[in-house]
Fold each of these.
Amino acid sequence: MKEQLEAIQQEALEKINTVDNLKELQEIRVAYLGKKGSLTSVLRGMGQLSKEERPIVGEMANRIREAITASLDEKKEALEKEALEKQLEAEAIDITLPGRPTNVGGPHLLTKIVEEIEDLFIGMGYEVREGPEVETDYFNFEALNLPKDHPARDMQDSFYITNELLLRTHTSPVQARTMRKYGGNQPVKMICPGKVYRRDTDDATHSHQFTQIEGLYVDKHVRMSDLKGTLDRFAKKMFGEERKIRLRPSFFPFTEPSVEMDISCKVCHGDGCSVCKQTGWIEILGAGMVHPNVLEMAGYDSNEYTGFAFGMGPERIAMLKYGINDIRHFYTNDRRFLKQYHQA
Ligand code: PHE
């Protein structure tokens, strides 16, 4: 019986040694240690042994069972580890593959210019206001000293919706709205950025929809020199401290006197070149002292209050600042164009 047990142990250990998968390993476990396994059936014959032999064989059988069990467990662990490693290897991610590039966006150049101008005027104590793009004839024209049939209405070809409603042709109606809100007895210092619309044919310098920034300062004792100082500060901050400004007489129905402001040419510093069409100067914006009629219509006593106003096109400012030669670039959303200004 001892020989039998030893033979079983040797055979089992050899088989365990050579097996290479978990399924067969489990079969071996059943074949030797299971209820009908060979070790079990040998032990069943123990009853025929003598009293003296029984404990010796019993002890031996236990040792063999333990040895086989230990060997099975050890092999099981090894096989499981091997399987896991194989799986990890098969599912490995190649981290050296280049990733798919994502398109990173950024604020539109126009948004940035508008914010830059806003910051500049906020720094001088202005508040930022907005007004409706669909405007009444009254605020777009009449409250700005442009009665019906006034010939100057032709300066701004308009998109009418009804006889009394139109797409605003400029941001100046927000002047009138803001003054009215302040009720004729408080100072006003505001800028208003926004979209405006004109019945123009789109080309390199015209767009049926573009942007304006309006400025208005009304108080007691506001003088033309205040306007000049403010615009000079704006021009130098925006284009460089070496720039000079010049005011030329002009006409707007809502300002008197009216001016147009030029800045000295960046390329020739005033000598004349192709950029400034040999004049040395580049036109930037319209401005003037608020017309007494406009103040009165908004409820301000024009003997007590005076003010200045200005209006500029941020597209034009950006075009001059960055050498952009076509206003349509702002609206056609070509990423090759827009991307260049993400860092600007
Ligand atoms: N609203 C004028 C325009 O669109 C610009 C302007 C604003 C002029 C304020 C003077 C004062 O042309």
Note: The chain has two domains: 2-90, 109-339.
Amino acid sequence: MSAQIAPSVLAADFAQLGAQVEEALLAGARWLHLDVMDGHFVPNISFGPLVVQALRTLATQHQAVLDVHLMITNPERHLEAFARAGADLITVHAETCSNLSTVVSAVRQLGCRVGVAINPLTGLQAFEPVLDQLDLALIMSVNPGFGGQAYIPSSTAKVAELRALLDARGAKAHLQIDGGIGADNAAAVAQAGATVLVAGSAVFGSGRGIAANLRALQVALG
Ligand code: DX5
Ligand code: ZN
């Protein structure tokens, strides 16, 4: 199966959030990426469990994965709230966890799938203690905090290296990439081994509209 696009609602018009998300789902999105920012781990503040909960019904109607990306310090304090709000998958940053294995187990005990993310300056060895337990490994291809940033080109080689690591272990985790993805680089990143490509501005930003933007990305992926 070819790689999937996970629209990031961070770039949506929040006055029309439900309608815009529905448009993406009707256009075939099967993942919804929700960026939670705390103004501490990252400079920006976005939203919390209320928005996850608000989108739960739409995601269920379209059989989409509610993919919650926690860019927050002390994520363990908030896991239960996001699980209760309806997250299918919760991703924490390796940089925020002093004991990553404990946090990964805590997410799983709440009945959610679990992901770990690393920043551009963090090495792949951060995944090492938990790689076999993950449903998703996320490589950030921008410094987290804001949508609309330029893709960091060295991320593609990092994806290829992680793909080789996962394959060597027979690990089935999704390999997700997040930041600066567009129709210009989606194919190369998928070719390198990413299976889920997060796209915010390329889906919800200006252009020909959400459905057409999504289609352009899907066409680029082939
Ligand atoms: C960045 C977020 C991304 C962001 C992607 O901190 O984690 O998910 O919304 O936005 P674009 O696709 O515009 O780079
Ligand atoms: Zn994200």
Note: The chain has a mean pLDDT of 97.
